[in-house]
Amino acid sequence: MRMNKLLKICGVVAALAGCAGLPLVSETELESESEAQFRQMRNTTPISTDAKTRSYINCVAQAIVDELEEPYASRLWEVEVFDNEAINAFAMPGGKIGIFTGIFKAAENQDQLGAVIGHEVAHVTQRHSLERVNRELTQQGVISIGTAAAGIGGAAAGAVQTAAQIGLSLPYGRGQESEADIVGIYYMADAGFDPRASVQLWKNMEREQDLAPPQWLSTHPSSDNRIQDLIEALPEALSRYNAAKAAGKDPRCD
Ligand SMILES: [Zn+2]
Question: What would the pLDDT profile of 119-167 be if each residue is shown by its tens digit?
């Protein structure tokens, strides 16, 4: 039975009695939905053809991916560069990374870009989208997802709108943000990017927010103590960074 149908039924049932027994979204389901959304985005959003920009971003992304735990390190990650002014970047289950050229307004050098990609990829390795959608389904109301599915797909039309689709568009939670910050700063440090750049990146994001709200912040809610948390993670991150340098990891992407 398709998830969207279940959601609609559960949306009604949940209003009365809750919705026990709802099948959760699987990782495979989420990955195949990621694949579809990524492909669609490539078809509808202009791709950057600037060879220098593409190779720069690929270089940083590859250096980070090489440091991931398995099975993520040996996965073939697809990186796409979108020619778009929005300050935005994302990573999706299944190994997709999307960078908008607008990100350079906040990420001013390879270390800061490493902070962005480290953070994004950490959301994937910590399985945050899966966690998020399944938490919605089990705890916080099947109603909100059921209603959204009906709203997007049309209640009677039976249009396909799975929970996985919605799951990929949900903003991350604050706890997940903190986790991605910490895991991400370690990834970048392990790759030989200076972890102190993460603090500057977030300051830049805040600066840009005053000019025009970065899209990134709408899906990555910042907590007031984000920078403080990063500073607290710095000693460990710096020690990993020094170890990476000693091991000869010295990315020269820009
Ligand atoms: Zn985030």
Answer: 999 999 999 998 888 887 777 554 455 555 555 544 322 222 367 777 7
- Assess whether 120 carries a catalytic annotation: yes
Q: Classify residue 251: in a domain, yes or no.
A: no
Task: For ligand 1, an ion, list residues with CB under 5 A.
Answer: 172, 177, 180, 220
Record the tokens describing residue 214, joined without a space.
């970065």
Distance from residue 90's CA to the centre of ligand 1 (Å): 9
The tokens of 188 are what?
A: 């970048």
How far, in Å, from the CA of 116 to the mean position of ligand 1?
9
Report if residue 12 sits inside a domain.
yes
Residue 194 lies in a domain: yes
Cα–chain-centroid distance for residue 231?
22
Q: Is residue 110 part of a domain?
A: yes
Length of the chain: 254
Cα–Cα distance measured from residue 27 to residue 94, given in angstroms and rounded to the nearest whole number? 9
The whole domain housing 8 covers 3-246
As for how many domains the chain has, the answer is 1
| Separation CA 69–CA 151 (nearest Å) | 39
pLDDT band at 36 (very low <50, low <70, confident <90, very high): very high
pLDDT at 5: 45
Q: Which pTM was predicted?
A: 0.84
129 CA to centre of ligand 1 in angstroms: 11
250 CA distance to ligand 1 centroid (A)?
26
Q: Which candidate in 31, 33, 80, 120 is catalytic?
A: 120
Interval between CA 123 and ligand 1 midpoint (Å) = 7
How confident is the model at residue 184, as a pLDDT? 97
The neighbouring-strand residues paired with 100 are: 82
pLDDT exceeding 90 applies to what percent of the chain?
60
